[in-house]
Amino acid sequence: MKIIDEREKNLDDKAYRNIQELENYAENTQSSLLYLTLEILGVKDLHADHAASHIGKAQGIVTCLRATPYHGSRRRVFLPMDICMLHGVSQEDFLRKNQDKNVRDVIYDIASQAHLHLKHARSFHKSVPMKAFPAFLQTVALENYLKRIQQVDFDIFHPSLQQKDTLLPLSLYIQSWRKRY
């Protein structure tokens, strides 16, 4: 019900006022899906739930970043307004695919928040039961995107970010074999 309620609140297509709103949305949608996955796997562990919360928040933030070029092409921007205002960036800058330093700084700040959640989730690695690891393998794709966006100097509109990473399945296999998320 949390997922449905949160999606209903988000039907008006407004930008998030701040990063906390984006994180709350991610917690109530992405993290809720992870909690369900853990339940299906038979994992009832406080550390796993805490890790799922942070992974869900990171997933929500990264999804918002990844969708920015698509939404921009539809004349919509969902990035947190407080971070945009902090750097003096307007929604119009994203609609025009502006690549100024200020726009990249906004993306850097948002991506950094996702990275912090990912790092925090991984700090529970030793405390999380092994049965929960398959649910958390999505962190491989999240980290991959965050590294790729860093390589293009946080230019959210760089064409390479819209292409598939052909090595992602191999990275997933290696992380699952190593029993790491």
Structural write-up:
Keywords: Membrane, Mitochondrion, Mitochondrion inner membrane, Transit peptide. This is NADH dehydrogenase (Ubiquinone) complex I, assembly factor 6 isoform X5. Pfam families: SQS_PSY. It is found in: Mitochondrion inner membrane. Belongs to the NDUFAF6 family. Helix 2 packs across helix 3 (46-73) and helix 7 (138-151) crosses helix 8 (168-178). The chain is globular and about 45 Å long. It has helices spanning 2-9, 19-40, 46-73, 81-86, 91-95, 101-122, 138-151, 168-178. It is an all-alpha fold. Helix content is 64%, strand content 0%. The longest helix is centred in the N-terminal third of the chain and has 28 residues, at 46-73. 32% of the residues are buried.
Number of E strands:
0
Please summarize the sheet with the most strands.
none
The class by helix and strand makeup works out as: mainly alpha
* Helix proportion range: 55-70%
**Stretches with pLDDT under 50, minimum 5 residues:** none
Order of helices and strands: HHHHHHHH
Rg, please? Answer: 17 Å
Mean pLDDT: 94
Number of helices: 8
Question: Which strand-content bin applies to the residues?
Answer: under 5%
N/C terminus separation: 28 Å
Q: Outline, from the CA principal axes?
A: globular
